[in-house]
Amino acid sequence: MAEADGTRRSGTSDPGTLYLVPTPIGNPGDITLRAIEVLGRVGVVASEDTRHTRRLLQSLEIDARLLSYHDHNEESRSPQLLGMLRDGTDVALVSDAGTPLVNDPGYRLVAAAVEADVPVRPLPGATASVTALIGSGLPNHQFHYVGFLPRREAARRSALTALRSSVATLVFFEAPHRIVAMLEDVRAVLGDRPAALARNLTKDDEEFLRGSLSELVAELGAESVVRGQFTVVVAGAPGEPAAEDEALARQLTETMVRHGADPRLVREVVREVTGMPRNWVYEQVRLAARK
């Protein structure tokens, strides 16, 4: 077992624990009490950028040993950290912002720790993808986190083609200098779907832009220079309505029309009760009125 400072207790063979610790994505106040406790207790903090993490720890009055852990040294650093864990040292893994492993390095270390029967403890906390999703106004009962698309247009469109039939809401990250081109490709491949852009989440200048993809392209295109950190949420492909939903909608439409209800009221009631698409309901009301 490890001591309170994360170092190994003499005479024990228990491994340390690997903690996956989220850090704020913009607002420093979003650090959790548990994250502070763990960061102040472990023997080593493995971080994507030690300078960035040191500033965070200093603001929390935490003096911790830091080791770099990023895309360029993940393969070589993982065995070193695993050795520390096996020797009984607790290790916290953090990224520059948000939850480790979500578009950040860490998979190799977690997989190796699991294989070696080293305890892995993920902490809940800040993540831009879910924060953007729940504030987007788009369906969130099913979503697909995509992260960054390829930088080159051909590869980007190929990746989007594979997502074309997914009914899940899609969540992307994109850099400000590529955001307009990325949105144009999403519109070209997936169609002009409803979408939301979350810019600078949790910061004082946080902003949500909502509308169709073409509207969002036009809005960003009007900016002289596009700045900010973007999380992009795009509605999934329209699903095929279930047969029983169609039957209920038709029956309700025909009954209301037969009793003289105003067509506009019929459309509103049928859509509210059945959730059927607007255009489909409009056509059913038109057909029912002709009978």
From TrEMBL:
Any Pfam family hit: TP_methylase
Function: Catalyzes the 2'-O-methylation of the ribose of cytidine 1402 (C1402) in 16S rRNA.
One function term, GO molecular function aspect: rRNA (cytosine-2'-O-)-methyltransferase activity
Lineage, uppermost ranks: Bacteria, Bacillati, Actinomycetota, Actinomycetes, Micromonosporales
Catalytic reactions on record: cytidine(1402) in 16S rRNA + S-adenosyl-L-methionine = 2'-O-methylcytidine(1402) in 16S rRNA + S-adenosyl-L-homocysteine + H(+)
Highest taxon listed in the record's lineage: Bacteria
Main localization, broad class: cytoplasm
Subcellular location: Cytoplasm
Keywords: Cytoplasm, Methyltransferase, rRNA processing, S-adenosyl-L-methionine, Transferase
GO cellular component: cytoplasm
Name listed for the protein in its UniProt record: Ribosomal RNA small subunit methyltransferase I
Record EC number: 2.1.1.198
Domain Tetrapyrrole methylase positions: 17-216
Homology family: Belongs to the methyltransferase superfamily. RsmI family.
InterPro entries named among the record's database cross-references: 4pyrrol_Mease, 4pyrrol_Methylase_sf, 4pyrrole_Mease_sub1, 4pyrrole_Mease_sub2, rRNA_ssu_MeTfrase_I, SAM_MeTrfase_RsmI_CS
